């Protein structure tokens, strides 16, 4: 029986790609928008992977993105000071664009009304991730947050999932985990006993060999959990 539901944050509850895209386009309004957004996502993925692997700290993983992008935009090679000054403006734009997906609050309220324990498991810096939850107005319904910077491991490693369950006081087989990344989130729980659920908003057909439940909007989550 599921007694707790844990969620990924970026891309699941918070429209991270929308916020990042808005911020980078406002930073370079004269650059082709489609190319710029796509390239910024690529650089972000690379930097975050290196951050989670322990190669870069939080500041450096932000800095390497613009240090790579600036020459591609014909702006020459930037030093760290110029990169950091630009990043201060970018981060302000990014934070101003933080918004939850439209259905998030309603779904969380429904699950909380059922008496389910709710929380977040997220790869990233704990202070920033908690700030996001506060900014989205979700801290009251998501009081429990486990971030990789504090947990000592990152998704899809089993340790961070087990830490979260222990903190909520539930066995792994009593918890479900919902995230927008198939491998990192939904399939990442396989070795822990949690019920992984893939939130796939892409609109693409489901893979034929899918081994976890797939939903295309969080609105269907309460019904799915009711069927478990």
Task: Describe what you observe in this structure.
The chain folds into two domains: 141 residues, Rossmann fold; 81 residues. Helix content is 49%, strand content 11%. A six-stranded parallel sheet has the order 3-2-1-4-5-6, sandwiched between helices. The longest helix has 20 residues. The model has no long low-confidence stretch (mean pLDDT 95).
The largest sheet, given as strand count, sense and whether it forms a barrel, is: 6 strands, parallel
Which CATH class of the largest domain? Alpha Beta
- Return Rg in Å: 18 Å
Order of strands, main sheet, comes to 3-2-1-4-5-6
What is the structural class? alpha/beta
What's the arrangement of secondary structure elements?
Elements: E1 4-7, H1 16-27, H2 33-52, H3 58-72, H4 80-96, H5 104-113, E2 117-122, H6 126-135, E3 144-147, H7 148-151, H8 158-168, E4 175-179, H9 182-186, E5 195-199, E6 214-215, H10 221-227
Helix pairs in contact: 1-2, 1-4, 2-3, 3-4
Give a short overview.
With 228 residues, this protein is α/β, with parallel strands linked by helices.
Q: What structural keywords apply?
A:
2 domains, 228 residues, Rossmann fold, six-stranded parallel sheet, alpha/beta
